[in-house]
Amino acid sequence: MKKYQNHNCLFFTVILIALCFPYQGKAQKKESVDNGYYITYPDRLMLDVYLMQKFAPLTISSQHEQELNYRTASKLNFGAGFAYNGFGLNVSYGFFNKDNGKGKTKGLDFQFHLYPHKWAVDLLGSFRKGYYLDPKKNNGLNLSDYYVRPDLHRSIVGLSVFRVPNSHKFSYRAAFTTNDWQTKSAGSILFGGEAYYGSIKGDSVIVPASVSSIYDQAGIDKINFFSIGPGLGYAYTLVIAKNFFITGSAIGSIDVNFSTEERTSNKKNKTSVIPGGIYKGAIGYNSSTWSVSANITGNALYVGSESSSKEYFLPTGNLRFIVAKKLAPRSHK
After folding, report:
1. pLDDT tens, position by position, 50-98
2. Burial of 51 by CB count in 10 Å (0-12 exposed, 13-18 middle, 19+ buried)?
3. Are 191 and 167 in contact (CB under 8 A)?
4. How far, in Å, CA of 311 to CA of 27, rounded?
5. Rounded distance, CA 295 to CA 280, Å?
6. CB 180 within 8 A of CB 85
7. Which residues contact 114 (CB under 8 A, 6 or more apart)?
8. 17 in helix, strand or coil?
9. What is the spatial distance between Cα 122 and Cα 190, in angstroms, rounded to a whole number?
10. Count of alpha carbons within 13 Å of 258, Cβ hemisphere only?
11. Is 143 helix (H, G, I), strand (E, B) or coil?
């Protein structure tokens, strides 16, 4: 298993470097912007405060109608940050997390969404430990209370890089970081690729023993996977009365997925071709000085299974509500 993991990690590192290369090569080239569609503010300091809710569930489906939809007991995060001339920093703190029988979720979760000219780059790192099952869901367990799994651990790292050909008229930054101001409706086709590496594991089997007859994945206590593939999509911002906007972005991908399922007695490998996706949406108000917006960003990630015809589903994303201020530089007389 270590040899398999090391080979995948090395391959993943090479892919990340390859994907980043075109961005590095173009970074120094200044591109034109059509100010009739959006305005950029490279010399202004952006200050923002926000509320954020992250999500990182894990779904295991049976051959019947039941499914184990493990969820995290995530906190509501309050954060603040700044951005200037393409560089930004945000810090957040989680609170408002009542146990309510759901247990606690620990770990680190970060998502960097970078929008240099003509590119959309998403870097993902999600390391979560502590999940629960809702008794109201149809999972075959007949629960009277939350089923808590503090030992269940899910780790994912990934990178996606997509070209934005119409970036002289369409701005991702205007919708999701509000550094720019989109004043006229526009959109762009998107093309590029993505790569992910991760694992799921527990101190005991992932599927509870009491429902082992329902789920073909019964007895598995660890899953490793690596996915890579090309994607194609489209993004569009509808501008209303110059200041109000609605943005939608969807990318579909076809990934080659390598997975390994481990049991106490054996392990099974599988190579499969499966779908994937990246979605983003935003709505709000933007201007040369203030912006108020809400947005969602997420990944739809599937992992193949040798034990079952049903894939594992590992979506990751966050919801944010942001208030931001653009500060103009002082003029020197």
Report:
1. 999 989 999 999 988 899 999 998 888 898 988 876 566 777 777 766 6
2. middle
3. no
4. 38
5. 7
6. no
7. 120, 121, 122, 123
8. helix
9. 13
10. 13
11. coil
